[in-house]
Write a structure and sequence with these properties.
11 helices; 326 residues; single chain
Length: 326
């Protein structure tokens, strides 16, 4: 009975941590959409948790921002009050990351010292702790890419940052579920392969979504299914050049649309095979939300909901994959 209670406590902790990662993703989306990500130039893991508390400190951090390419090329003449608005979202984003670290690390120490961690889980839990630290470093590396010559972060590093968040989120969910083993559910290899193929397509769609955000490719078109007036396929798509394929806004936008359509088809058919109405409903909602986001000219509420929806969809797909893992 004690082991069962311990497993429930640890699972609840893992699920709650996953929820905080979900919140972090939504905050991160707002940070990106408000162009706030480059407002804090310094990386101060401890002291950075405290925002400027007086006029002198605000002048200092604003002066640092004025030396960045983003200010000089895009926001020249920005007032201090306007700077405070974008500073807030990046500060909140970093503060939330610190809170996630505490929410994960402190209970881990407690469970470890109380010898409550089940056999075989310690390595995974330490691995997650290391991965969380790596995510913080990856975030700063991403910010650095926008502080040198360009007024925006590298879309490759943004994709790596978001992708790592999904790995952490998914791992937390999977470990939490594994503490309550499912009932034996003999499932064909074909069905499991279908499910994991759907997960791979969802992951690719998410990465391409990060490319969309990093290149502001969502603003290229506000119509669907046509990219432009009567045009389904952008002319650049005919140029089979890898550099153009990965960096051209129109191609990134077009590719994201149809990778998402393939992911929709794969997830819907998997949901039908597993009789998962929640998964089927969520993937349709997420697809429609993506279209609405484009047609809204990437408004902040719609785009933030779309990113959050990707995490919810991932959680539901992982849940159904776990149910048929045996």
């Amino acid at each position: 009975m004690t082991d069962i209670k311990n497993n429930i406590s640890i699972a609840n902790w893992l699920f709650f941590t996953a929820f905080t990662v979900f919140c972090m993703a939504v905050i991160g989306a707002i940070t990106r959409l408000t162009e706030s990500g480059l407002s804090i130039v310094e990386w101060r893991p401890l002291m950075g948790a405290v925002p400027p508390l007086n006029a002198e400190e605000w002048d200092r951090v604003f002066q640092l921002y004025q030396n960045t390419p983003e200010y000089q090329k895009i926001n020249m003449g920005m007032s201090l009050n306007e700077f405070k608005n974008i500073f807030f979202w990046e500060w909140l984003h970093r503060l939330w990351g610190r809170l996630i670290g505490l929410i994960y690390a402190l209970p881990l120490i407690y469970f470890w010292l109380r010898n409550m961690i089940p056999e075989g889980y310690k390595t995974s839990l330490i691995g997650l702790l290391i991965l969380g630290g790596s995510q913080a470093v990856m975030g700063y590396v991403m910010v650095l890419s926008g502080l040198a010559d360009r007024p925006s972060v590298s879309h490759y590093k943004l994709a790596a940052h978001l992708g790592l968040a999904f790995v952490i989120f998914g791992w937390l969910m999977w470990l939490g579920m594994s503490l309550n083993p499912p009932k034996p559910n003999p499932t064909s290899f074909c069905k499991r392969r279908h499910g994991w193929g759907a997960m791979i397509m969802l992951a690719i769609t998410i990465i391409w979504g990060a490319f969309m955000a990093g290149k502001d490719a969502g603003l290229v078109s506000s119509s669907w299914p046509h990219m432009y007036q009567g045009v389904m396929i952008p002319n650049e798509f005919q140029m089979m050049d890898f550099n153009i394929f990965m960096n051209n806004e129109s191609i990134i936008h077009f590719t994201h649309r149809w990778i998402a359509a393939i992911a929709l088809l794969m997830i819907v058919t998997f949901a039908w095979r597993t009789r998962s109405f929640a998964l089927g409903g969520m993937v349709f909602f997420q697809f429609i939300l993506g279209i609405a986001t484009i047609m809204s000219h990437i408004t902040i509420p719609m785009a933030a909901m779309h990113q959050g929806g990707a995490f919810i969809l991932t959680a539901l797909l992982l849940r159904d994959l776990y149910k048929i893992k045996t």
